[in-house]
Amino acid sequence: MKRFGSLVVITSVVAACVVALAGGVTAASATSTLPTLNLALTGKTGIKVSGSEVSGAVNVAATFSGKGQGQAVLVRLNPNEPAPQALADGIAAIQSHHGDLNALTTTGNAIVVSMGAPGTVQTLLTPGNWAALNATGNQPAAVTFTVSKSASPAALPTPGAAVKPIEFGFTGANTLHEGELVRFENDGFLVHEIVGIRVKNTATAAAEIKALKAGNQKLARRLASDFVSFAGPLSPGGMQQETITAMRGVYVLACFMDTQDHREHIQLGMERMIKITK
Asked: CA–CA separation, 278 vs 276, rounded Å?
């Protein structure tokens, strides 16, 4: 996968498997009266899970002790296998497919949340085995935990807007608002991510989209003023919702994941201009 210059932070997603992806500074947070699942990341390899481990809606609160920013990932494991075996099968599938995260889907595992740490998002936990990953470095660590079935699972708050990647584009709101609760959900059949590239104005956004489609990385870097990660790689159906805290302005949404023929999704038209307003 080609890198979007120095704007894109290299992280990894699955334990013992180096998987490059476009990540970055988290763009949002989410707080509510929901129960909280805590992910405590330490450096590049430490991770502990505590808090609510029952089904239903939760706040996922990730903390990070170390330099810079961490990357936290929640993986729902194949319910038909013991947790260690399901995790091992997922790792092996990705390794055998040269880092292609879509191979994880074939094993019955799924990336449900991929977020910056520190940060907070909301998601739904289903009963069964899960894995929490500290994907900050090239040798990420994972711990497994079990979500029990709740007799009265909490419901997610209704978001004010939604943005959903598909093959190959984005659907949903064209305008997001500061302080608005927004759902980011993979509505496609492939693994996707949602990166926001901040640009000067709508004319620059059009030029940025053209440069990304053409694979002109040099021009794309020059046109961009900043970037945020609204959601890291998510498997089909993966969902997190969060309160928008990114700066107001014009953004180009993009997905930098690779196809099997090693073209980035941006080259297949996976860009969209949006605005963040008051």
From this structure: 7
Which value, in Å, is the radius of gyration of the alpha carbons in the chain? 18
The answer to whether 264 touches 1, Cβ cutoff 8 Å, is: yes
Q: Are residues 37 and 132 in the same domain?
A: yes
Q: Is 40 exposed, middle or buried (0-12, 13-18, 19+ CB in 10 A)?
A: buried
- Could you tell me if residue 154 is inside a domain? no
78 Cα distance to chain centroid? 20
Does one domain contain both 205 and 248? yes
Tokens of 271: 């860009």
Co-location of 143 and 74 in the same domain: yes
Based on the domain organization, do 45 and 113 belong to the same domain? yes
- Backbone φ and ψ for 7, nearest 5 degrees, come out as -75, -20
Per-residue model confidence as pLDDT tens for the chain (278 residues): 333 332 233 333 333 332 322 334 455 566 568 999 999 999 999 999 999 999 999 999 999 998 889 999 999 999 999 999 999 999 899 989 988 999 999 999 999 999 999 999 999 999 999 999 999 988 778 999 999 999 999 999 999 999 999 999 999 999 999 999 999 999 999 999 999 999 999 999 999 999 999 999 899 999 999 999 999 999 999 999 999 999 999 999 999 999 888 889 999 999 999 999 99
Give the Cα separation of 39 and 117 in Å (integer): 9
Q: SS3 for 171?
A: strand
pTM score of the predicted model? 0.88
